[in-house]
Specification:
Strand order of the largest sheet: 2-1-3-8-7-6
Strand content: 25-35%
Helix content: 25-40%
Radius of gyration: 22 Å
Number of helices: 8
């Protein structure tokens, strides 16, 4: 099996395209994917339109090793993630008896009949692995297609996060090939973006070998932020690079910190 290196996160839900709801799931997933050695190269927020969703899924699986979707797995007519993914992959949806029984049992445990709408949540793209959701009615789905994987996760964070930790994270780490991603932020005051660049770029451009370091410089209120990302299999070398221990002279450090 090919190792995973890149990921795309698709946050599904028309409410995320309004000023009333934030996409916090992507922040959680980006952190966990980085911890597992996976670069998040793209994030997309898409509404509940089936054709729009199918379009972004198609592009995502063409360019990322693993695609994670959040949302759109509920029982209502605007929950169309399952259908869109099945359409893109060219596979039918089959009712999973075990999923159906689990949903019905969840309602029965509360003394309620299961609404007919919830039956939609038992529809599974053929070939998918069902990921149990003890905190809700929407199961997750893990689908392998050619050299790519797409994982469908529920939208509510209290359901999505435990499902990721239990079912998705172990699978991703098994396919990461030992690669690690480390990130750090250095905050500098009293210097402009260009001045920080003049000092920082020569320092980190000297690093090489087992470690790749990317730098991003951002202007924030009252300070400049130097964002460092290091990738490689040697954890000690990654941490050393982020501390700027390799290749940074005392003069370099003083220049960056003091101006």
């Amino acid at each position: 099996m090919r190792a995973f290196h890149t990921a795309e996160i698709l946050a599904v839900g028309s409410e995320l395209l309004t000023p009333f709801r934030q996409d916090t799931n992507s922040l959680f997933l980006a952190g966990r994917l980085n911890d597992a050695g996976i670069d998040v190269r793209w994030k997309t927020v898409v509404g509940d339109d089936p054709s729009d969703l199918a379009s972004v899924v198609r592009h995502a699986i063409a360019r990322a090793d693993i695609v994670l979707t959040t949302g759109g797995l509920g029982p209502t007519a605007d929950d169309v993630t399952r259908e869109a993914v099945a359409t893109v992959l060219g596979v039918p949806l089959d009712e999973d008896t075990a999923v159906f029984d689990a949903i019905r049992a969840r309602f029965a445990a509360r003394g309620l009949p299961m609404p007919d709408a919830n039956r939609r949540q038992a529809q599974v793209p053929r070939g998918a692995i069902v990921m149990a959701n003890p905190l809700g009615t929407a199961p997750g789905l893990w689908i392998e297609s050619s050299d790519h994987v797409i994982a469908l996760l529920p939208g509510p964070p209290r359901e999505m996060q435990p499902m990721f930790e239990t079912h998705v994270d172990p699978r991703i780490r098994a396919r990461a090939g030992g690669r690690q991603v480390r990130r750090r932020v250095i905050k500098v005051t009293g210097r402009s973006e260009s001045a920080v660049e003049e000092v920082a770029h020569p320092i980190y451009s000297r690093l090489g070998g087992a470690v790749t370091v990317d730098t991003t410089i951002l202007a924030a209120p009252g300070q400049i932020e130097l964002h460092l990302s290091a990738r490689g299999a040697d954890i000690a070398a990654l941490d050393a690079a982020l501390e700027a221990g390799r290749g940074m002279t005392t003069h370099d450090a003083v220049a960056l910190a003091m101006g």
